[in-house]
Amino acid sequence: MTHERFIDPVADFGSDLYSIMKPARYLGGELGSHPSIQPEDKRLRMALCFPDLYEIGMSNNAIRILYNDLGKLSDSLVCERVFAPAPDFEALLKRRGLLLYTLESGIPLKNCDILGFSLGYELLATNILAVLDAGDIPILNKDRTEDDPVVIAGGPAITNPHPFGQFLDAVYIGEAEAEFYDILLDIAAIKRRGGKRGDILERLRSSKAIWMPPSTAGTAKPAYRAVYSDFSLSTASTAYPIPVIQTIQSHGSVEIMRGCPNGCRFCHAGYYYRPQRIKSIASIEAEVKALVEDGGYREITLASLSSGDYPDIAGLFNRLNATWKEKFVSFQLPSLKVDSFTLPLLASLSEVRKSGLTFAVETPVESWQGSINKQVSFDKIAEILKEAKRYGFRSAKFYFMIGLPVPGRGRGEGEAIVEFLERVAKVERIALNVNIGTFVPKPHTPYEREAQLGEKEALDTIYYIKDSLRPHKFISIAYHSPFTALIEGIVSRGDDRVGDIILSAYRKGARLDAWEEHFKKDIWKEAFKETLLTEGYDPTVEFLEKKPKDTALPWNDIFLFINKNYFKSESEKSDLGQLTSSCVDNCDHLCGSCNDKFSLVSNSEHIEVLSKQPHAQNERVGSNYGTVLTRPAFSLGGVFPTTMEDVRLVVSFRKEKNASFYPLHSISGIFTRAFFMLGLPVRYTEGFNPLPRMEFSQPLALGIESDDDIMAVWMGSEIIIDDRETFIDAFNRCMPAGIIVNDIRIGKHRNEGKNTIGSLYWGSSYHIIAHDSDDLLKLEKGLNTARPHEFIRTEKEKNSVECTVNDARGGDRNIIRLVEQALERENILERLAVRRKASLVLVGDSGIVRLFDAL
């Protein structure tokens, strides 16, 4: 099987796309995605993969930062995305003899130079193998040849790379902006000089931030975390690409701070991202502006590990609210410490749309909070809830962990959580959504040697909490599976032997383990049992029991610039319930993360000092894919305020190829974003989540193309369009591939009679191409077009039918149903190509006219 050509999914899979869930996951074409390339392009090819489904990967901010930063290096390299296939698509690839490919150009993964994984959590382990397998890349690195890509990974979930050592050629430890881009530029130069896979591995071996397993480095090569010292002055690009289907997290995200000063002893991210570095207000405002105006985002998360530790967070929040609330943009602060909540901040959170309250309590007993180094005052929570009810908040989320190394570990934690929530319930009548997680001790934390709570004890504790709180109807309890927590623990703290367990589970069918509907517990239990029988140890004991203080740890060859003695000291303080103060300049508990290369950036004075230093990031040059998104300037000849919904913008648009697989709610989201990008004064609904007041013509089944779909939106002001062609051009620059605006007009006023799409739409004309002459004959004889004004015309030389159908009421008059009845079979899109030619209106005795002209 040869793979020299690129894959065009619509052409290569054809009607098979109708057999899988959410085919748009695999089609690409998003607004802001990098331009496709041709097979003869000689630049370095990198496939960037978040190994989970599209709707998870496209929500990941790290992927967006990497993708856009690497896009700026397009003179030297090509960066394209790929995500894990769902089981139905994985099976389709095998059935059709095709390889998993990148979304932008359809490059088979086998034909890339670099396959890079970004790992955010341990349950992605088997997905990595699924991606390798589907791309025809040997799963084991020892089996790869000069014709295979170099497989590299990075991210917070791989600071113990040993369980992945059989599968990866290299692991980058640290923040990509610090060194990874420069490594790729060097590799691109190696390729230009004719270098091969071995030369690339040699360059990786020379980097201090790269860990390599014995299979690629002879002996395991240690790595030192790369830290991005210029973060505070940087401006990240995350507006693009814009997903074409609904993602798990659809907000824009601005990382306002990296690292955390608090030192919660259970928190791996808090140590991995040290030291704390705040982003400048100017950079934050620039990123927000780009997300709103370039990406059309209306909900933006101000992200960090502890947003309340950003200096004057309330002032920043108010500043952003004042700038953007008139455009219905809302902001969220998902990581607020309880003691950083203030009443003015609560008032600001309630503007535009209420983003919800979240309390990450972790453990409710004050002395236990001293052990984990995180204080959460009940009195402060009670004060916040009382005020929140006054501001209209109706619910709050609470997060707890069980299995923490505290005196009441297990059942005692459950009893304390129940008592705490019963006290909270008496404060204010508000819905409490509670989530219980089983604590997973992580490498490079003070708890890296602690035991993990077993599945049975964890479940017993969770069920006790649920049963005890059952009488409280407004308290809902959800929990993460303690069994999947066991897998997380084994992957995060295991050694090289864990790779065999991952491989065994994968070959037995484990995939997408973070998804409840795909997770197969029996497979993992079988893999654990197999390990016990063949290797003589139980993974749930070997890797999850408490480790003696003098035992060497697998991840000792990874250096995060935090002294091991510091972890030892913090572990001892945890046993005593003693707190460690937050990170400050000249602190009295040096951990090693502040040194002569990088240090704390926690206030505006630090940023001012930093801004006067030379910065390597400003020296990097390269073309920017973002320039292709520049929209032509256009002007509205006049904008006149109106108090009535009597002005409407009417749009006719086409849906071709990829876009025919977009569901209606995705099309609605695409236009909503376009209104924002263009600055159109559209009218919004009232209530919690304001949306544009718009409607669409009759939706079509997925896979049916259209020349004339209609969208109409009420305007908040009367407008005059001076330059229609430029306006249409600007509109099309806001659309993903396959959505093309044909025409735009100002609709009739409300007082000119009924003129909504729903009241006027009568039917559509269709063009149907039959691939079989018998089907054409059946259509000609059997297609039900007997109603007034309906007709059918056959063009036998083109194997096609032109018909007009009154399908306004749907049901059996749906074009798909009518064709199925004529052919006496289902799944007709596997045999026919159906295309809407025009959306129509019946106007009295005048006959049929286009809906676009009638509105």
Please name the defining characteristics of this protein.
28 strands; single chain; globular; pyruvate-formate lyase- activating enzyme; 855 residues; Alpha-Beta Plaits; alpha/beta; Rossmann fold
Fold and architecture overview:
By secondary structure, this protein is of the alpha/beta class. It is globular. Mean pLDDT is 91; it is low at 616-628. The protein is 32% helix and 18% strand. It has 28 helices and 28 strands. The strands form seven sheets. Strands 19, 20, 21, 23, 24, 25, 26, 27 and 28 form a nine-stranded mixed sheet that branches. Strands 2-1-3-4-5-6 form a six-stranded mixed sheet. The chain has four domains: 9-224, Rossmann fold (3-Layer(aba) Sandwich); 251-495 and 543-566, Alpha-Beta Horseshoe (pyruvate-formate lyase- activating enzyme), CATH 3.80.30; 630-752, Alpha-Beta Plaits (2-Layer Sandwich), CATH 3.30.70; 754-855, Alpha-Beta Plaits (2-Layer Sandwich).
Number of strands: 28
Largest sheet: 9 strands, mixed
**Overall mean pLDDT score?**
91
Q: Report strand %.
A: 15-25%
Poorly predicted spans:
616-628
Spatial separation of the terminal alpha carbons: 54 Å
Helix content: 25-40%
Global outline: globular
Mind telling me the CATH class of the largest domain?
Alpha Beta
Count of helical stretches:
28
- CATH level 3 topology of the largest domain: pyruvate-formate lyase- activating enzyme
The CATH fourth-level homologous superfamily of the largest domain: tm_1862 like domain
State Rg: 29 Å
Oligomer: single chain
Annotated CATH architecture of the largest domain: Alpha-Beta Horseshoe
Number of domains: 4
* Class from secondary-structure proportions: alpha/beta
